[in-house]
Structure formats: structure tokens, C-alpha cells
Amino acid sequence: MTLLSIFSRLEDPRRGPAKRYGLREILVMAICAVLCGADDWVEVAEWCEDEADWLKGFLDLPQGTPSHDTFGDIFRVLDPDVFESCFREWIGGLVGVVKDIIALDGKTVRGSKDGAIPPLHLVSAYATALGLTLGQEGVAGKGNELKAIRTLLDTWVLNGCIITLDALGCQTDIAAAIVEKGGDYVLAVKANQKTLSEALVESFETGEALGWGKVDVHCQTTVEKNHGRIETRRAVLVPKIDWLPEAIRTAWPTLGAVGMIETTQEKGTGEGATISTDRRYFILSRGVTTVGDFARAVRAHWGVESMHWVLDVTFREDACRVRKEDAARNLSLLRKITLAMLRLDTAYPKSSLRQRRNRASRKPLYRAELLGLRPRSQPGTTKSIK
Fold first, then answer.
1. Is the distance from CB of 183 to CB of 158 less than 8 angstroms?
2. Less Cβ crowding at N or C end of the chain, within 10 Å?
3. Residue 45's pLDDT band (boundaries 50, 70, 90)?
């Protein structure tokens, strides 16, 4: 099922004369424009006006293309939950049942702040091996991120998945929700879980000072060299936790192990060389049994943070001032749709996302393939899209 056929089932929120342009046509035009470099409604409208002849090869546009106000008005009132459900159905049809590591992380869309109204905060579920967003939930302000995390976890069956979350998501009810859905977890631990954090820090420091004694400990060390920097990552997994206080062991569902990642960075050489060391602590459910899986899950979580960086650098998300009602959330989903299209592209595997986006703007055939568009049937005529 194509993205456009799924979107055709969206209910149009407009009534009467406001329905000058079909909702499906509006969505197709907006996706096309964002794919080709447009970052706000003015740029979307300008791109559609410039490419009106090409768009008419696929869409019925007797009134021409809409103004930026029309785009803004429609996405301001479009139900973001229904729009999101269409996206999830589309991405699910593309990737099937997702296994392996899913990273959940939040990002504030800074330009969406509107007076006293806080900026939109979006929590995304990211399939790290595929490089694709599986879904997003929006809340007003970062302080409400936990609600979005819980809502996202209710969306999928997590059999065969490891869910990774930063320290904010290290909550007993969230761990329980992951386990109930059939998944495993790797949760970062910091001061927001003071008792747990202090127990882990003390235990690892004491264990290493005493050589761990009879405690079963698994270690893995990797070294990477690039850009004049040497990074050494040491992963330590302790699969037996009977030494932890009972209150901690019983509070966390299916707690099976604890872990530590120590990262040492060496920059420069000689007298100007600098060395920095950072330690992070984690709790793991019983299904994460090897130090390799633990280290891979922690490293893979960086993928969702990289995706947020791409949204800012390639799509200029933080600079965008779209902020009225649900417009910011819906535009963010448009970015993730086009990002998925670019990630799934196999025609130019060596090109960067920016290069693919520029190529889509320049090459109509490539653009149509990415979008899954087919020319309209026009009896007696043959229309070229080159």
C-alpha cells in the first residue's frame, strides 16, 4: 500500500468553500516540496507554484496551486493523531515487524514556541538498524516527555526488541510497560534515580578496586581512531545482581544485569594532548545477556540523536517558525516522511541525505520514484514527466 493511498483515507477537517483543494492533493504537494528542500509553508507554496506543470501530471489542480496561507491553515487543523496513524501504517508496511534495537528520545522544536506557550516537544521511536522513525508523539514542553514515551510504547508489540532510553525514561512503570509488550530494555541511570545511581556507582568503584572477587563480570573494549582523536570504549556487564539491595531488585521488572560504559578520549599529541574519561551506568532486563549486545544497544542509541541532528542541519527544523495549533507537529511528521523516503532510496547509495534531497529537486523522475507517483490518466494525451 502506498503512502498516498493511505492518506486518501484521512478525513478532511474543512467544510464548504474552504475545500477548494483536495486534502490528498495538499498532502502530496507538501511532501513533494519538503522532499525537494522546502522548510516552511512559504517555501512549500513557492516550490509548488514553480513546479505546477509537473504536479498537474499527477494531480487534479484546476485552481492551480495553493498559497502558503492555505497550506498553513490546513496543517494547523489537521488531526495530528490521525495523520500519525497513517504514517505508522505506511512505515509498517515498508519495514514489516521490527526487531533488534528501538531507541526512544525526545527533541524540542525550538522555533515552535509561541509567546507563553512552550515549544513543541516530540518523542520519536527510531529503528536504529534501519535508520527510520517508526512513530512520534508530541507534548507541550520537555517536562511532559514521559507521557509521550508511555503512549509510544502502547503502540507496538515489542517481541525481539531492545528498547533504549536516556535517564529521563528510567522509570519503573516504563520498564514494566516494555516487559509487558514483550521487549527488553537498556536504561541509562543518573541522579533522577538517586538510590539506584548511588548503588551502581559505589558497586562498580568497589568491585574494580577489589578486582571483583568471585563476581562474574564480562568486559569488552573497542578502540577507534579518527580526526586526530583516539576513543577507547570499555563496556562492563555484571549479569548477577543478587548483591544489589532487595528494594532495588524488586522495584525493577525482570531486572537481569547492570552495566557501565567508560569512554576515554585522547586528543592531540605531546605536551598539548588532553585525555578525558566519562562513565555511564545502565540497568538491563534479563533478555540482554551478553556484553556485546549491551555495548551495541548503548552505541545504537546514538542513532536517534543523529536523526535529530539531521532534522536540524538538513531540514532546518529548529529554525522553522511554524507554530500555530497543530501545524508544527504535522510539519515535523512531513519531515520524517521525506527523511524515510531518502533513507530507503537505493538509487544513490553513496550520496548524502542533502545530496539526495537536492537531486530530488533537480530530477523529476527520481522525485516521482521516491514518492511512488504515477502519471494521471489523460485520454488522448501523453504527458512527459522528464
1. yes
2. C
3. very high
Cell of 173: 512503570
Q: Which DSSP symbol is given to 213?
A: T
Find the length of the chain. 386
| Closest CA relative to residue 73, chosen from 12, 116, 118 | 12
SS3 track for 80-108: HHHHHHHHHHHHHHHHCCCCEEEEEEEEE
pLDDT in tens, 69-105: 999 999 998 999 999 998 998 898 888 888 899 999 9
* Interatomic CA distance for residues 271 and 21, integer angstroms: 67
- Dihedral (CA of 183, 154, 144, 332) sign: positive
- pTM, two decimal places: 0.89
380, pLDDT greater than 50: no
Q: Which amino acid is at 82?
A: V
CA neighbours closer than 13 Å in the CB half-sphere of residue 264? 9
CA distance 215 to 213: 6
First CA to last CA across the chain, in angstroms? 25
Residue type for position 107:
K
